[in-house]
Amino acid sequence: MKKTVKLEGLDCANCAMKIEQAIKEISGVEEASVNFMTTKLKVSAERAQMPRILDEVIATVQNLEPDVVVMKA
User: Fold this and answer.
1) How many CB atoms lie within 10 A of CB 67?
2) How far is residue 53's CA from residue 40's CA, in Å, rounded to a whole number?
3) What is the domain-level CATH number for residue 17?
4) pLDDT at position 72, please?
5) For the chain, what is the domain count?
6) Which long-range contacts (CB under 8 A, 24 or more apart) does 15-21 make?
7) pLDDT tens digits for 14-53?
8) Residue 9: helix, strand or coil by DSSP?
9) What is the CA radius of gyration of the chain?
10) For the chain, percent helix, then strand, then coil, each to nearest 5?
């Protein structure tokens, strides 16, 4: 299953790279990519694990970049 979220307030390419790398480390994430130009994060994982993973994505983004808000795309 693939899920896309918007990273509102993402204004730094290095920050996008940090977020992408951290999301890839979350247990159960098969693939993750951040497009800095569109400020969208795409995550692939098993459907059953997606709710937990999305919660961890939000927590990870808040931890790394407190000014960035994760929104449904």
Assistant:
1) 11
2) 16
3) 3.30.70.100
4) 83
5) 1
6) 15/64, 15/65, 15/68, 18/64, 18/65, 19/60, 19/61, 19/64, 19/65, 19/68
7) 999 999 999 999 999 999 999 999 999 999 999 999 999 9
8) coil
9) 11
10) 40, 35, 25
Backbone angles phi, psi at 27, to 5 degrees: -60, 130
Please give the Cα distance from 37 to 21 (Å, whole number): 17
Instruction: State pLDDT tens for residues 42-73.
Output: 999 999 999 999 999 999 999 999 999 999 86
| Owning domain of residue 41 | 2-72
Query: Could you tell me which of 3, 13, 12, 15 has the C-alpha nearest to residue 60?
Result: 15
Closest CA to 39 of 2, 3, 4, 7: 7
CB 49 within 8 A of CB 28: yes
